[in-house]
Amino acid sequence: MKYNIIHICEDEKFINSAINQFEIIFPNQNKFYILHTDNSIPFRHVTPSNCTKSISTIELVQLSETLDKSSLVILHSLSSKFYSFVLKLSKEIKIVWLCFGFEVYNDSYYYKSNQLLDKITLKKYPSKDKTLSWHQKIRPLYRIIKPNLPFSDYELKRKAIQRVNYLGSTFHDEYVIIQKLLNVKKDFFNFWYYPLEQIVEINSPINFDKTTMLIGNSGFKSLNHLDVFDKIKKYNLKASKVIIPLNYGVESYINDIVEQSNLTFGEKSFPLLNFLSLSDYNELLSNVGIAIFNNHRQQALGNTIALLWFGVKIFLSEQNPFYTFLKRNNIHIFSYENELNENSCNTFLTQEEIEQNRYILFKLLQQDVVTAILKKHIDTIYA
Questions:
Q1: Which of 40, 116, 166, 171 has CB atoms 3.0–4.6 Å from 189's, for a disulfide?
Q2: Helical residues (DSSP H) of 128-171, grouped into ranges
Q3: 39, 74 in Cβ contact below 8 A?
Q4: Strand partners, 76
């Protein structure tokens, strides 16, 4: 049986990998519609192919009215630009929402900033969370007497969330959390954008001559850099340099972190401000001995997996659901809150611990395993 799988995306770096995976399993049964405002400008991330098509916002809404009822729609994120498309689809069409995270964690209606930020970062960057006003709460009732009242952005998003049938996440722990935050019940759709083979060279040797420490993966306040700096500033660090990747993010925040890193670590401070090729970045990561990620939400999955493969000792916040996932699968991972101290951040993983981490990661995330899970999900939906 041939399927008709319709993918709705923006021009994101994850999409090429998704195209590769879906086309391996279901060749010539996918159409990736890439939301694009100007066809005269090439895609920045997505590589054009026979299964990709540029589409405008207006054309996307028109597409929703022409899709065959046997189609399966897969949303790569739930961008606000997708709401009208989702709400115009036939009720008989099944929808999978592959949640990127920003749709929930960056929306303070669902996730408050005091859940995302540690004490020092929150004090430095206070933000006013959104709450539903009384007139927003009674708006649905008011619509009874005024049916033409436009839907608010909050209402449109809520209706779009309620319309989807499947909630996609890389691991079940986060799926449970997102359902709870959104107060919805959806079937689980397990999908990893990057199988292990696309993240690292499987046969890469283990480097035991570790000389550097790494903090965070980008220039966003959700990494809580300032709190990490404050926690370790008095430690006598053996690391020859402290790498802070800041090659994308919020410019004003990046400038603050560069300044504070230089003040805290002096000559050891090494803010990474330029993009590196994947091979150069992996070479950099292979020399890291200790990595610290103090994000409370799922973030930096690819970095974390690569670092574990390279034999790095990683400290994650216990509030991060990926910490729970790794612990449950017997990966050697360490608690930022309860295990990070001067001694622990100056001692590295043993060869036995590194080899065990590699064995488990390969068993969980190798290409054949990831694609088999994807095939089972799609076949079950169409059954």
A1: 166
A2: 134-145, 153-163
A3: no
A4: 98
Residue located via tokens 């709400």: 87
**Residue in the block written with tokens 């054009």:** 48
351-365 and 367-382 helices cross at what angle (nearest 10)?
30
For residue 172, the tally of other CB atoms under 10 A from its CB is 14
> What's the predicted TM-score (pTM) here?
0.90
Backbone angles phi, psi at 42, to 5 degrees: -65, 160
User: What is the per-residue pLDDT across 277-300, written as a single tens digit (0 to 9) for each?
Assistant: 888 888 888 889 999 999 999 888
Which residues 6+ apart lie within 8 Å of 233 measured at CB?
264
CA dihedral 340, 342, 344, 350 (to 10 degrees): 150
Closest among 46, 51, 97, 55 to 73, alpha carbons compared: 97
Tokens of 70: 């046997």
Verify that 190 and 203 share a domain, yes or no. Answer: no
Contact 76, 51 (CB under 8 A): no
Domain residue limits at 255: 196-365
β-bridge pairing 72-76 and 52-55: unpaired
CA distances from 266 to 242, 258, 323 (A): 10, 11, 31
Which positions ≥6 away from 148 have C-beta within 8 Å? Answer: none
- For the chain, the 3-state helix, strand and coil shares in percent, each to the nearest 5, are 45, 15, 40
Q: Residue 99: which of 156, 181, 31, 22 has the closest Cα?
A: 181
| Residues 309-350: tens digit of each pLDDT | 999 999 999 999 999 999 999 999 999 999 999 999 999 999
Q: Quote the number of domains for the chain.
A: 2
Residue 274 tokens read as: 């330029």
Tell the residue number behind the tokens 């370790």, with chain if given. Answer: 232
Which tokens hold the place of 295?
């994000």
How far is Cα 361 from Cα 357, in angstroms, rounded to an integer? 6
CATH number at residue 200: 3.40.50.2000
**Residue 75 host element (H or E):** strand 72-76
